[in-house]
Amino acid sequence: MKLQESGEMYLETILILSRQKSSVRAVDVGEYMGFSKPSVSRGVHILMDAGYLRTDENGFLQLTEQGLARAEKIYARHNILSTFFRQLGVGEQTAVDDACKVEHYISDETFEAIKRFVEQKA
What we know:
The chain folds into two domains: 5-69, Arc Repressor Mutant, subunit A; 75-121, Diphtheria Toxin Repressor, domain 2 (Orthogonal Bundle). The protein has helices spanning 5-20, 26-33, 37-49, 65-87, 92-102, 108-121, and strands spanning 53-55, 61-63. It has six helices and two strands. The chain is mainly alpha-helical. Helix content is 70%, strand content 5%. A two-stranded antiparallel ribbon has the order 1-2. Helix 1 (5-20) crosses helix 2 and helix 4 packs across helix 5 (92-102). Strand 1 and strand 2 form a beta hairpin. It is elongated.
């Protein structure tokens, strides 16, 4: 399924939060992203319907195997692109902000070329 940018951002946020704390609630996602409760609720339901996300018996959000794989791919893109932009001399915050924008639209071919470049520079 082709996810829109917002869906990918939700998955990435849930992954980041799940690495910081033992349980993630929809309200945590909203606070982290600065989104309203109704927006988060809609986004969560879309991801659940697509099979990327589920809730446990306490209502905590959990990435499915498919969701985790997708979130890790997005997060890896973000990290590689941030590193690439910093290597070009872009400031830290701008590199992070721009990586967040580009990670959703860049082709796999271009991303893989950037990844090889960054790994050669390391």
